[in-house]
Every structure is written in C-alpha cells, then in structure tokens.
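Appendix C reproduces, verbatim, an entry submitted by the partner laboratory led by Prof. M.T., so that reviewers can inspect both the input and the predicted structure.
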Amino acid sequence: MAKVFVISIVVILTLKGHLDSIVSILEKPYVEIGTFMYQLSIELVTKVGLIYILIALSDYFYQKWKFSNDMKMTKQEVKDEYKQTEGDPRVKSRVKAYMRSRMRKIMITNVAKADVVITNPTHFAIAVQYENGSMSAPKVISKGADFLAHKIREKAKEHNIPIVEDPPLARALFHNVEIDAEVPEELYKAVAKVLAYVYSLKKTK
C-alpha cells in the first residue's frame, strides 16, 4: 500500500507540473502532441523507475535488518534450544548415574564367573577369567577402584574365588585393560603366573 501510494504521488505531481500542456494538448498539431506524450512518458518512467530503485534498496536493507533481528535469541530461547539439541542436563545426569549404577551391578555380578581377583590390595580389584579351549587369552570381566574394589573383593569371598595381591599387576590391568577385553601380550605372562598359582592351590585342596 505504501509503495502504491508513493508512486501515485509521484505520477500526480509529474502530471500536475504539465497540467497546462495537457489541458491545451488538443489544440496542438499532431507532431507536437506525439512529442509531448513521448517526453511525458519518458519523464514518468524515469521518475517511477527511480522511486522503484529507492523502494527496492530500502526494502533490501529493511529485510536484512529484520532477518538479523529475528535471528537474535533471548537467553531463555538459547537454553531451550540447547535442551532440544543436547538434552536436558538434569535428565542426562540422571541417565549417567543410572548407567553407572547398572554397570557397577553387572561388574559385581560378573565376579562370580572369575577364576581369580587380583588386588592392589585395597585401591584396585580386577576379576580375571580364563576358560581353556574357548579363550585365546585371559579376560578382565570386572574391575573397580576403592568402593567398587571393596565390593568386588566381598563378592569374591562370597563365591570362594581366590584373591591374589599383586599391586603392580593390579594397577597395570586397571589402567590398560577394558571390561570384557583380553589381557594384552605384555601382561599375559604375569597373569598366567597368577592363574597357574591359583590352579595349583585348587589341586592341593
């Protein structure tokens, strides 16, 4: 509406400036009428074209400003967007806590299947399992530090699983071997010695 209004004003003012010529146009020769109409048309097209250019430039900068302004978000909107993309931190925290609790229960339960628990003796506890013929190497099936290490030792005692104190080996296994992973080659001999000792104890009983 504003664009049409501005263009209409320009056209009216242009015609008003040539009002006398327009009123007396029928009294002029055809050649002068043609020349006048041509010049008037050129003037109108030029002025309207300039107005359109000004309007287009104004509209461009307005739309750019509006877009930039619309893209700005309040602090609450930023928080809401973060929650949508990354998840609610409180929910994520509860999920992580649940997963840790679940993992601790699984690791303590796995101790019942171990052949030996290697300890630090108090800081670390690593449960190792080896099944001759079905495993290519001993496997760490549970491990823990401090409180979890205490729980692993308790579970081992409950199931009469041998507990062997070997601080260097316990530290190496805890820091270098993941749960359900086989003992690496550099630790294999040390673990094999512990298992041989455990098996010898079972034979003597």
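Residues 30-71 form the longest helix (42 residues). Additional entries are available on request from the coordinating office.
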